[in-house]
Amino acid sequence: MFRTRLISGIILVILAVIVVSTGGALLYGVTAVISLVGMFELYRVMGIEKKSLGLVGYLAGISYYGLLWFDGQKYVTLMAIAALMLLMTIYVFTFPHYGTEQVTVSFFGIFYLAVMLSYLYQVREMADGRYLVWLIFLSSWGCDTCAYCAGMLFGRHKLTPVLSPKKTIEGAVGGIIGAAVLGFIYASIFGHRMDEIGNPQAACAAACAIAAVISQIGDLAASAIKRNHNVKDYGHLIPGHGGVLDRFDSVIFTAPAIFFALTFLG
Q1: Which of 35, 65, 160, 215 has the smallest set of CB atoms within 10 Å of its CB?
Q2: Any transmembrane segments, and where (predicted)?
Q3: Where does residue 165 rank: exposed (0-12), middle (13-18), buried (19+ CB within 10 A)?
Q4: Nearest C-alpha neighbor of 31 from the set 187, 234, 255, 205
């Protein structure tokens, strides 16, 4: 199991480096596909992945990425309202075939997967995006690693005793500090190439710290959904890691966090 997880992890990192470094249409397309696969995994938990509620979610996700590509973000609110109206129409005319939770999750998935994950592409498209985009992974996977180490060394107090008994407050704080340090080090190396960031070291450290807090919320939120529905993994697409949601649960949250943190801090 460990060997499979290690090999697939290495392959995933290599692919991520290639896709993110290339950016542009490649990253846009891969991000859109990952979003749709993630929506499928989430909808499968609710039993709507192949039903009309799921179809509306997929179409809304595709529509959102179309708006993003053609600079039509001003129509996102209209798209969201139209999707909600269509979902409610299906709900009332098929009542009681679908439960309220299924309708809610269908709408929730549009923003949770399509909109939030799209900020991976949007950060890459920023002025200094070729350097700033890596902060998403530093604050996500870096936080996970630092939190694990800090928790093993200093962990005493449970963070969420019922949801994730092994996570500690000390580990969470260590993850935030570790992510901030990684952001500072990264900016110390590449900051001179960031033309649009006033104080790269301070901005990157602060952005990573903010994203690290949100990253842990994203990780716990994905776990909570699985616990509520007695699901071990969202899928088996990535050997040893589970599904897209199992691997990218924290990235989903750190991508928009980094985007808006840098927008205000830069």
Answers
A1: 160
A2: 12-40, 52-70, 77-96, 102-120, 132-153, 173-191, 203-225, 245-265
A3: exposed
A4: 255
Question: What is the pTM (predicted TM-score) of this model?
Answer: 0.93
- The burial class, CB within 10 Å (0-12 / 13-18 / 19+), for 85 is exposed
Task: Name residues whose C-beta falls within 8 Å of residue 135's C-beta, 6 or more positions apart in sequence.
Answer: 123, 183, 186, 204, 207, 208, 211, 258, 262
What is the spatial distance between Cα 118 and Cα 193, in angstroms, rounded to a whole number? 24
Residue 2: pLDDT band (50, 70, 90) is low
Percent of the chain with pLDDT over 70: 99
Secondary structure of residue 44 in the 3-state scheme: helix
Tokens 């290599």 -> residue? 14
> What is the pLDDT, as a whole number, of residue 10?
87
Residue 247 corresponds to which amino acid?
Answer: R
